[in-house]
């Protein structure tokens, strides 16, 4: 047996002349105890003893008695208590001149050197020979350790008994693996770019802080980066979890415990720690520093200034603000497909964890689209994805995706206990938190993650449960916010999309910079730089949490009404310029507002004003249909009608008429013709009740729509003429533009091309005067169709290019598909069937997801596709069609706009002027010239002329051909 006093030099310096009595008393107590157990004192030097026993059990009993005697003795002061470490080993020894000469003596000395003050370590040989153990004593197996100077490994045990300290740092032995990084039980997925970036930063900087929201994967990435660096740090890579530290003053103790350091008498732990680390080439990984941010920053600063070889890799939800700190914000997992077409990092993680949750069965192809919805909805947040995978044990991918409107309720289902623990922690229900001194903490025990009181142990359990649920994860950060930052987080949760600084300021009617900076620092709001400005985004799980807090704070009504007002203002900016004048409607400007407007509509349909909801819906009227979302528009309107019935909110007849008219158009686009007619009739009745002739004209201008959908084209034509006549007689003819365009389509359909052209020529100024319609360029589109029917490729090309360019520029994507189809026909008639097939394929690929129909033109497109197929042959047509289907709408539009303009020059392969019939004469009754041309169509070469391919046309171009000239 060997013993000595841990930190005896420091104790002697502290006590001065008082050390001698302490040392003497220490010797007395040990000798008395050892003699009583038949121990033989072989050697004594300073504070050390070398003792031999003839019985291992007696040696253990002596150690227990001695440690209790030392602990219970009345020392001059608590800090004067000597901490004695003891080591035991059993083996053969040869007596020589009153001493023992044997390697086993040295082994016993090394075991004692591995112990800490107050600890008793013994070898496996002693444990074997000591049976049975003293009463109430037991052994803890500490595993195999390599002792300094010995090649083999020794299994060490710790003696445990009442009255002896139990928790100690790891033994001071020579370990092959100089690290204590946690062993991961799950596979690491993705993050290749992030790992490389973080490794590079750590190589060039002494302090790198990984900052991100709770559940973003900070710890896992940091551990994965630190693992391969073990060989680069001779003095080790050491991991410390600050989340288990219950008091700021214990941060240094927690780090010291990992290094195997114990408090030195009369000396601050931080000084002992700095001395130990000085000159050592090591990497210290401090995890979850946001649990004790101030104390962590102080310790890091002291360590970095105390030596030049130490590097620190920290994880936190907020940076420290220390000199030389490099802040690396961890991004969410990518939701974009990997290069080469593989799954995104977020998708790969979900598939991996889903397989684990389902006993090794991975998600099938049938679930792929729904799983993509899940990872997109969770913003690539790793913890949320892990929790979602666990839900897939009981839900299908489709059911999970549908339930993610309630993110927290879905992901945290069945985990209420963890939430309750964090809620108590956040509210300060546990003593010992936030400076409460009622909880007494043993500094030695707390430095190892153990506290005496049940309350503190509950806090520690909460710390380890902080990632058990999304609620617990966000609560961990929310509890650290001040009143202004907490209010800002709650109020910004009403936004569904990233917002700029001006929007946040508008929402709060206050300067938000200070609280916004706090939320960004704490990773509760993400900054997204965009050139000269930045936007601020809240991850969806955090938004869901903040929205709950908004309700709890009684602020939901005010915040959401303010958001609705912002949306109305944003819509106003889309329809009107800075000077207040109307501008051409661009649906492209509504795309980034769509989610925001949906959030506002949800509130107006459940807790706000349905009248305001109808106004917002009116702003999305054309957007819904052009994006193939007419069904969504109908559903929102039905919800708003229900809200009106529930609250009795008065709605003016004019606004109801506009809503019903919009509803009928949505129903038509969605193929619900009975519903279309029903709401068209309601719209007329409400418009008549309102007494507004212009409104009534706009509503009844759509009378032809239901008739066309039911195939009653003659009645539809008569209805359009009647509406035009009524509107003109009542002085609101310009409001009947829809009737004019419907009539032009019907005339085109039955071949009355001259009348259609004249009607459209007169309608051009009406369309140009209406900002909500002129971007669609319907007049040019229809004139292009008339020109195609006449076989006039020059006029058709000019009009169709104008219509396509304008529709693309202003975001009318569904109508742009009609223009693509028309340009495909123009190419087919112009001798380029392969381009025609590609454009047909592109138009169909874009329109299919939108569930839109071709209207009166649908049969025409089908006929022209069949004619093009007959020219190319099935194989060539299908190949070109498929190639077109791979194009985006933008790529297809570029292809169409790049088609060479046909010309009328002599020798043109497209047109042949027939000298015997060509003539040029002025017609006093009409504007423009009249020329007879014959179009050579390779598909009909040698066949009798088709009436629409060789005919007289007048006024090829009606209008200026510019994209947007009133």
Automatic annotation (TrEMBL):
Record-given protein name: Guanylate cyclase domain-containing protein
Where is each Guanylate cyclase domain found? Answer: 1-112
Ranges for the region named Disordered are 908-966
Using the record, list the residue span of the signal peptide; answer none if the entry has no such feature.
none
Instruction: Tell me which SUPFAM superfamilies the record gives.
Output: Nucleotide cyclase, P-loop containing nucleoside triphosphate hydrolases, TPR-like
**InterPro entries this protein is in?**
A/G_cyclase, HTH_77, Nucleotide_cyclase, P-loop_NTPase, TPR-like_helical_dom_sf
Ranges of Basic and acidic residues composition bias in the record: 916-925
Segments forming a coiled coil: none
PROSITE patterns recorded: GUANYLATE_CYCLASE_2
Q: What organism does this protein naturally occur in?
A: Asanoa iriomotensis
Q: Please, which domain of life does this record's source organism belong to?
A: Bacteria
